[in-house]
Amino acid sequence: MNMTLSRIVLVLVMGMAVWGMVTWSGTARAAESVPQKGQPVYEKYCLLCHGPEGRGDGPQGQLMKPPAANFKSPQSKNKSDAELLKIIREGHPNSAMTKWAGILSEEDMKQVLSYIRQLAGGPDKGL
Ligand code: HEC
Questions:
Q1: Could you read off the pLDDT of 25-77 as tens digits, one per residue?
Q2: I want to staple 58 with a disulfide (CB 3.0 to 4.6 A). Which of 8, 18, 51, 54 is the partner?
Q3: Which of 12-16, 21-25, 93-97, 111-115 has the lowest average pLDDT?
């Protein structure tokens, strides 16, 4: 009787441990994959100017005036997500930064923004 009970308890505990590991690794993977969705978008549309690491040193980035923004600079890192998203959506006046609304979906622009933040090591605001 006691043996059976302890076996049941053991099975239950092991079951919960396995379940916990499965759900934990599931959420960890989901969290990692979110910014990555922006990577193909960035490489296709933005890398040419903003560069592979977001320093504004893409093959065309330094040829224009003003040069492409360096996402690792304090100027960019101090901007809020809303400010950067507005520039991505609407472009920046008198610069080579064109408007991406209509070309990219709202979802793609948000994904590419989180990819830019990932390249820059996160926003400075509020830290
Ligand atoms: C033709 C070159 C070019 C391409 C392509 C380009 N950008 Fe830009 N981008 C610029 C330039 C130049 C600026 C700087 C504008 C300024 O300083 O007035 C800029 C500025 C920005 C800013 C504002 C940064 C800040 O701190 O103010 C963001 C965000 C941005 N770009 C995101 C993107 C994204 C996302 C893409 C791809 C979907 C992209 N850019 C594609 C040239 C480009």
A1: 665 555 554 557 899 999 999 999 999 999 999 999 989 999 999 999 999 99
A2: 51
A3: 21-25
Tell whether the torsion through CA atoms of 92, 96, 99 and 105 is positive or negative. negative
- pTM here is 0.78
First CA to last CA distance, the chain: 58
Distance CA 18, CA 71 (A): 41
Classify domain 37-127 at the CATH class level: mainly alpha
Closest ligand 1 atom to the C-alpha of 45?
37
Ligand 1 lined by 72 (C-beta under 6 Å): no
Q: What is residue 97's DSSP assignment?
A: -
Domain boundaries, the chain: 1-35, 37-127
CA dist., res. 113 & res. 13, Å (int) = 42
DSSP letter for 79, please.
Answer: S
